[in-house]
């Protein structure tokens, strides 16, 4: 049975309808999302690596939030220890981890609890939407927050687990990692029951097995598997 979000009493009092999560398929929808991120997100629109998905959260036909998902970071000690896989298994199955690259609730629509309502709605639709777009079901989500500026309240409200801190490195233009002295909080969210056990199992569920080759993305952009992607944990979603 499909789960539904708890009603937002303030939204009901204001006569607002439920939030709906739509995938950005067209170039114009991606431009709308990128423009909003560029205007209002502290880190800008950013760049995605590997397979990607953009969720547009709307209420009464109006855009209220944007979530951008993409390939996971190549190596995160706290994540890899939580999953329990070795380097070989990680290299083969890292695609089953998706990263919340950007999350923005538009300034004009902000109200108490809307961020957790939008993130929760996005998570409920993520696996099915990702499978429809990329042909396989992810098992784990990762995200980051800056402990100096964010308490991670929205992650706690949507049942993410704080796995630990990153090592405080960022990637420069030469593809080398340099210390930045700003470790980030690493948050993990299982997208299926016993996700970590499944990722280490001898055989993956059939729905989690995807083609092992590069595939074109909508709009003609080439995609690479996550283990080819270069994603910096310092470019966080907040």
Give me the strand/helix succession.
HEHEEHHEHEHEEEEH
Low-confidence stretches: 171-176, 213-235
Query: Termini, distance in Å?
Result: 32 Å
Mean pLDDT: 83
Superfamily at the CATH H level? Gcn5-related N-acetyltransferase (GNAT)
CATH architecture tag: 3-Layer(aba) Sandwich
Q: In the CATH hierarchy, what is the class?
A: Alpha Beta
CATH fold type: Aminopeptidase
Fold and architecture overview:
- The protein has helices at about 10-15, 25-40, 75-85, 85-95, 115-135, 155, 195-200; strands at about 20-25, 55-60, 60-70, 95-105, 140-145, 160-165, 170, 175-180, 185-190.
- The chain is an alpha+beta fold.
- The chain has a single domain, classed as Gcn5-related N-acetyltransferase (GNAT) (Aminopeptidase), CATH 3.40.630.30.
- The strands form two sheets. A seven-stranded mixed beta sheet has the order 1-2-3-4-5-9-6, sandwiched between helices. The chain has a two-stranded antiparallel sheet with strand order 7-8.
- The radius of gyration is 17 Å and the shape is globular.
- The chain starts with 8 loop residues before the first helix and ends in a 38-residue tail after the last helix.
């Amino acid at each position: 049975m499909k789960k539904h979000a708890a009603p937002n009493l303030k939204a009901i009092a204001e006569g607002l309808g439920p939030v709906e999560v739509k995938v950005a398929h067209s170039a114009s929808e991606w431009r709308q999302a990128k423009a909003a991120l560029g205007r209002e997100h502290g880190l800008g629109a950013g760049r995605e690596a590997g397979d990607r998905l953009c969720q547009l959260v709307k209420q009464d036909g109006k855009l209220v939030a944007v979530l951008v998902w993409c390939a996971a970071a190549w190596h995160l000690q706290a994540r890899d220890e939580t999953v329990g896989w070795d380097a070989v298994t990680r290299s083969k199955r890292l695609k089953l981890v998706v990263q919340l690259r950007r999350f923005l609730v538009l300034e004009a629509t902000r109200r108490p609890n809307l961020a957790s309502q939008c993130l929760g709605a996005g998570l409920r639709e993520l696996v099915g939407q990702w499978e429809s777009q990329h042909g396989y079901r992810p098992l784990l989500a990762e995200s980051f927050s800056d402990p100096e500026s964010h308490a991670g309240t929205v992650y706690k409200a949507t049942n993410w687990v704080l796995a630990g801190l990153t090592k405080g490195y960022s990637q420069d233009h030469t593809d080398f990692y340099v210390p930045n002295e700003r470790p980030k909080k690493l948050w993990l969210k299982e997208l299926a029951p016993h996700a970590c056990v499944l990722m280490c199992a001898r055989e993956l569920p059939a729905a989690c097995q995807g083609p092992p080759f590069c595939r074109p993305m909508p709009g003609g952009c080439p995609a690479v598997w996550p283990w080819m992607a270069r994603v910096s944990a310092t470019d966080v979603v907040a």
